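Q: What does the predicted 3D structure of Melibiose/raffinose/stachyose import permease protein MelD look like?
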Amino acid sequence: MKTVQTHRVDVDVPRVVTPRRAKPRRASPSARQQRRAAFMFLAPACIMVAIYVVWPIISSLSLSLYNWDGMTEKTFVGLANYVELFHAPTFYTALRNNVLWLVLFMLSPPMGLAIALYLNQAVRGIRFVKSLFFAPFVLSGVVVGLIFSWFYDPTFGLLKVILGHGMPVLGDPRYVTFGIIFAALWPQTAYCMILYLTGLTSLNAEQLEAARMEGAKGWAMLWHVVLPQLRPTTFMAIVVTVIGALRSFDLIAVMSGGGPFESSTVLAYYMYDQAIKYYRLGYSAAIAVVLFAIVLVYIVFQLRRMVREEQ
């Protein structure tokens, strides 16, 4: 009887090595202490923002869904305030005036830049000249409104002296908005000038010197060397100018009171008018929500644009 011998063949099977999960490293005591210190420093600011920014926004959104005069019980009306708002002719007049404010207010950043470039010189007496240009910014809006109300007065104002005859700027629906915007440009240009003066002090001196060695001067120096370095300052000036144009209130209240015939009213003044004069707090909150949405959309657009340019 024959025996069959079987040969054993060893086959090397590769082992599957499963990687060990790395144990999460516990933060060192010093790192935990740094995070705790950072949180403690940020906590007061976060609390203030939550109380004075986030909570009023939420309260306005909630109030806009009610009919309330500030004294009696609130009545839920849903979107009725928004429906009434979008059918009110005064709303579109105020919105058109806000757009006009926005367009003409865009003159303040380039004018502020031009004045800042003029004042950014090391000459004798330039500090006194800077203080003269800075003065409109520290004046109250009420004071600026009174000054220009006297300036426009058709009986004794300086405008009458310049033109040779009286012109009722604040009493004519065709000119009243332009007259108020011209008055508001005075302090706004001073504010943009301050921003640009601050930005000019932080310019890279090496880039400026290299550009001079390459022969750049005048407009070429400004456009290709100075303005790119002032981009963050320009962004801030534009955002502040847009917000100032959309929340314009004090000069309108002092100079025209929204008139004549509500021709100079804007959304901020329309909101005040409905809340204080007519006790329509829910309707006023709806106007505030619309104004906030317009500002928010613009700021988000500008931030995304700035991030794309930086990338």
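A (community wiki): The structure tokens above were generated from the sequence. The mean pLDDT is 85. Residues 88-310 form a domain with the MetI-like fold fold (CATH 1.10.3720.10).
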